[in-house]
């Protein structure tokens, strides 16, 4: 890996955490990000922590100039889905043709969006299985456990990017991984609407009922569409709605691995709404609702969740009652 330059395209929660761990392990990492992040990191440095008690501090430079892509051997795309096309164009203009481009984004289409902007280049989809929250003053905390997975292709990039604190794996059949992650990400919206940290929400049976109802709707849609989804959980996808509906004492026993979430965890959609940004609802719930429309299928809970997020994008985030989302 020596002599290999990694460029993080989109220095936010995921980009700074993943790139930060790579830099802390001695990799050559450059960061492309916004002026406010560049200023925050220049003032405070970058301080990473995780649920297992890991802690890393480095002082990287975040550049606002896309020319930083020029020396890249690997580009890790870490922008929100709505910014993928624009980032793809910047990579096309500035990164070497031979650089491998890896999307570390949620949603199932970012790989294709980047491929369209980068014809003929090695573009891989990826999946980040953990949650990172920005705590301010250059501090970013991984609040759950989880790995990074990428689609297979030429060169063993997963091994090259696997460093202490960061598990990278490559996988055949990556589409199922992405759909499985999308199913998990349907929770992002519910977490935002609950107004609760992720762990507190998971401990509340009423909120778990909303999660279960929405997930059941989604599973029916994917099944009819013939789409395989490998949910990143110890239980198979079909069993998760049953587990979620259990009384809390039983849920705590059966779902112990799902509860490896510390009090700081809140999903990336919460961060978007708190910052007054548009969310990724269109590439998460929107993806399933589009399939459901083609199946003439009603999706009452997912539709309510989606409408509530659109209202929050418009009018600001106000917590709602779990019962208002159920039918
Ligand atoms: N946070 C999490 O825990 C997880 C997130 N993910 C996924 O990872 C992806 C990234 O999420 P996350 O890190 O939370 O997002 P963030 O919003 O924290 O980070 C993205 C950063 O990229 C910046 N950016 C966008 N376009 C450009 C550009 N052209 N040049 C420079 N900087 C740019 C954004 O700035 P601005 O906002 O001003 O556009 C923002 O600061 C998403 O798809 C998300 O769903 C996956 C797993 C977990
Ligand atoms: C929390 C997690 C890991 C799953 O919903 C996530 O992907 C996010 O915050 O976007």
UniProtKB/TrEMBL annotation:
Pathway: Cofactor biosynthesis; (R)-pantothenate biosynthesis; (R)-pantoate from 3-methyl-2-oxobutanoate: step 2/2. Residues 6-154 form the Ketopantoate reductase N-terminal domain. Transmembrane segments: none annotated. Keywords: NADP, Oxidoreductase, Pantothenate biosynthesis. It catalyses: (R)-pantoate + NADP(+) = 2-dehydropantoate + NADPH + H(+). Its EC number is 1.1.1.169. GO terms for biological process: pantothenate biosynthetic process. It comes from the Bacteria. Gene3D superfamilies: N-(1-d-carboxylethyl)-l-norvaline Dehydrogenase, domain 2 (1.10.1040.10), NAD(P)-binding Rossmann-like Domain (3.40.50.720). SUPFAM superfamilies: 6-phosphogluconate dehydrogenase C-terminal domain-like (SSF48179), NAD(P)-binding Rossmann-fold domains (SSF51735). Residues 175-312 form the Ketopantoate reductase C-terminal domain. One of its GO terms (cellular component) is cytoplasm. GO terms for molecular function: 2-dehydropantoate 2-reductase activity; NADP binding. Catalyzes the NADPH-dependent reduction of ketopantoate into pantoic acid. Belongs to the ketopantoate reductase family. This is 2-dehydropantoate 2-reductase. It comes from Rhodalgimonas zhirmunskyi.
């Amino acid at each position: 890996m020596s002599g290999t330059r990694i460029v993080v395209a989109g220095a936010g929660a995921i980009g700074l955490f993943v790139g930060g761990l790579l830099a802390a392990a001695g990799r050559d990492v450059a960061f492309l990000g916004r002026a406010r992040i560049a200023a925050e990191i220049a003032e405070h440095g970058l301080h990473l922590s995780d649920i297992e008690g890991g802690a890393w501090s480095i002082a990287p430079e975040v550049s606002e100039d896309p020319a930083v892509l020029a020396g890249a051997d690997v580009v890790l795309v870490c922008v929100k889905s709505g910014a993928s096309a624009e980032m793809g164009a910047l990579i096309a203009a500035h990164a070497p043709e031979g650089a491998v481009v890896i999307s570390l984004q949620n949603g199932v289409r970012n790989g294709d969006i980047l491929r369209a902007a980068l014809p003929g280049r090695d573009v891989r989809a990826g999946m980040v299985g953990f949650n990172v929250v920005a705590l301010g003053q250059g501090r970013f905390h991984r609040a759950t456990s989880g790995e990074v997975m990428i689609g297979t292709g030429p060169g063993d990039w997963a091994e090259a990017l696997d460093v202490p604190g960061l598990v990278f794996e490559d996988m055949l059949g990556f589409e199922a991984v992405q759909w499985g992650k999308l199913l998990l990400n349907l929770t992002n919206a519910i977490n935002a609407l609950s107004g609760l940290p992720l762990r507190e929400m998971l401990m509340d049976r009423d909120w778990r009922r909303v999660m279960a109802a929405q997930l059941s709707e989604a599973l029916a849609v994917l099944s009819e569409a013939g789409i395989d989804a490998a949910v990143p959980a110890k239980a198979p996808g079909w069993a998760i709605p049953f587990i979620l509906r259990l009384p809390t004492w039983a849920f705590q026993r059966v779902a112990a691995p799902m509860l490896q979430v510390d009090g700081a965890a809140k999903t990336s959609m919460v961060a978007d709404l708190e910052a007054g940004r548009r969310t990724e609802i269109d590439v998460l719930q929107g993806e399933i609702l589009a399939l459901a429309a083609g199946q003439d299928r009603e999706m009452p809970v997912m539709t309510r969740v989606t409408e509530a997020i659109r209202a929050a994008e418009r009018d600001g985030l106000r917590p709602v009652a779990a019962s208002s989302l159920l039918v």
